[in-house]
Specification:
CATH architecture: Up-down Bundle
Strand content: under 5%
CATH topology: Growth Hormone, Chain: A
Oligomer: single chain
Radius of gyration: 23 Å
Helix content: over 70%
Number of strands: 0
Structural class: mainly alpha
Distance between the termini: 60 Å
Membrane topology: Multi-pass membrane protein
Organism: Xanthoceras sorbifolium
Domain Major facilitator superfamily (MFS) profile: 1-421
Number of domains: 1
Order of helices and strands: HHHHHHHHHHHHHHHHHHHHHHH
Keywords: Membrane, Sugar transport, Symport, Transmembrane, Transmembrane helix, Transport
Transmembrane segments: 31-51, 63-81, 87-108, 120-138, 150-172, 233-257, 269-291, 298-319, 331-355, 367-391, 397-417
Number of helices: 23
């Protein structure tokens, strides 16, 4: 928004108003990129503290901490009088993101029965996409409110923060977390409640055994370096890197900038962002319906093909550094961006969070997932901090960069990513990693046997 740029980023505002020589470079400013990206550095650091909080005090209190940081960040950014206040507010929001992204997917995976775990966990991503859509709509509606439309926009972020705060007071803690913290009978009671039956002995015994194994691990981060822990760790980290290097965050963060670059006016570009937000939401609904039927790998492979084709056609459009596209070509770019976003939204977006949340055993679950979250935040920071400069220097060639990564992602999925559909979390070692042509070499027999529930409770098989 011009009022926002004029107050905090005058150099960018002047360049936007008066520079016509290069569409790709008018927003190239390190401080503007830092405003976006500093949130993710804070989230990266906070994710490690959040992992400890998840283990020691539980998933529910960790979500409550996240909501408090969100509310503090909203107050600071909406009332910001200078760039320092704005950045501190963004850092608070980042801490909230780190705590929420650590706790919520673990909470969902631990509550869900195996047969619907994928669909329930993807609800996390669904509501993120709804949040993006609502944010785009708010920005569109407040863009013509002068001079404080941007303050209204940032202040309204307090609404979902307040909902998270109040909602986290109403939910129950997960049985796995309660048992992990030696509240065994409370864990059994919650398990009966969420399953809706009294006979939960098999699942309860499995959780107790997993907790007993976890208690033997005094250094979960050291345990992650053992051979049998490497497959979920490597895959969890790579999924987060690949998720960011699809280029989708660059498109979603800077959709208004991108659409202005190809010839849309300010209001039209914000409206186009609302359209991509709608595509994002409805495509995530597709993933919820399909993921536990078709599986994870099918969605990821199909999306690689779809995103690669979309980028290929974008490259065929002559995106000029000066002037603007003709209306048919500009509309084609919007359609292709929507096609790209749709492919991401039913695959790499939700599954990048789902797969790591369901593959780590209890003894390394919080520590392992914190690596995934922090990796995601690190590479989100890298893309957010670098994208506008990359756009300026590489111009339309930036799509070659992302296309190359999508090709690598497809090959990785085809050869190195096992299917985890319908597999109970505590049976991953035996039924997934030990059966995979490549990852089975990491599974030493002694470690695998120690983690098998049937070694203590034979009736579980």
């Amino acid at each position: 928004m011009d009022d926002f740029l004029e107050k905090f980023f005058k150099e960018v505002y002047e360049r936007k108003k008066h520079a016509h020589e290069n569409n790709y470079c008018k927003y190239d400013n390190q401080f503007l990129q830092l405003f976006t990206s500093c949130l993710y550095i804070a989230a990266l650091v906070a994710s490690f503290a959040a992992a400890s909080a998840c283990t020691k005090i539980g998933r529910k209190p960790t979500m409550q901490i996240a909501s408090l940081f969100f509310l503090l960040g909203v107050v600071l950014t909406a009332s910001a009088m200078n760039i320092e206040m704005l950045i501190i507010g963004r850092l608070c929001l980042g801490v909230g993101v780190g705590f929420a992204n650590q706790a919520v997917p673990l909470f969902l995976s631990e509550l869900a029965p195996a047969k619907i775990r994928g669909a329930l966990n993807i609800c996390f991503q669904l509501f993120i996409t709804i949040g993006i859509l609502v944010a785009n709509m708010v920005n569109y509606l407040t863009s013509n409110v002068h001079p404080n439309g941007w303050r209204i926009s940032l202040a309204l972020a307090g609404v979902p923060a307040l909902i998270l705060c109040l909602g986290s007071l109403a939910i129950c803690e997960t049985p796995a977390s309660l048992i992990e913290r030696e509240k065994v009978e409370e864990g059994r009671a919650v398990l009966k409640k969420i399953r809706g039956v009294d006979n939960v002995d098999n699942e309860f015994d499995s959780l107790v055994h997993a907790s007993e194994v976890a208690k033997q691990i005094t250094n979960p981060y050291g345990q992650l370096m053992k051979p049998s822990s490497l497959p979920p760790l490597i895959i969890g980290i790579l999924l987060q890197i690949f998720q960011q290097f699809t280029g989708v965050n660059a498109i979603m963060f800077y959709a208004p900038v991108l659409f202005q670059t190809v010839g849309f006016g300010n209001d039209a570009s914000l409206l186009s962002s609302v359209i991509t937000g709608l595509v994002n939401v409805f495509s995530t609904l597709v993933s919820i319906y399909v993921v536990d039927k078709a599986g994870r790998r099918v969605l990821l492979l199909e999306a690689c093909v779809q995103m690669f084709v979309a980028i290929g056609i974008i490259l065929a459009v002559d995106l000029k550094p000066t002037g603007s596209l003709a209306k048919p070509e500009a509309l084609l770019v919007v359609v292709l961006v929507c096609l790209f976003v749709a492919g991401f939204a039913w695959s790499w977006g939700p599954l990048g969070w789902l797969i790591p949340s369901e593959t780590f055993p209890m003894e390394t679950r919080s520590a392992g997932y914190s690596f995934a979250v922090s990796t995601n935040m690190l590479f989100t920071f890298v893309i957010a901090q670098a994208f506008l400069s990359m756009l300026c220097n590489m111009q339309s060639g930036i799509f070659f960069f992302f296309a190359a990564w999508i090709l690598v992602m497809g090959l990785f999925t085809m050869f190195l990513l096992p299917e985890t559909k319908g597999v109970p979390i505590d049976a991953m070692n035996e039924r997934v990693w030990k059966q995979h042509w490549f990852w089975k070499r990491f599974m030493t027999e002694e470690e695998v046997q120690a983690k098998k529930p049937e070694m203590i409770h034979p009736h579980l098989t």
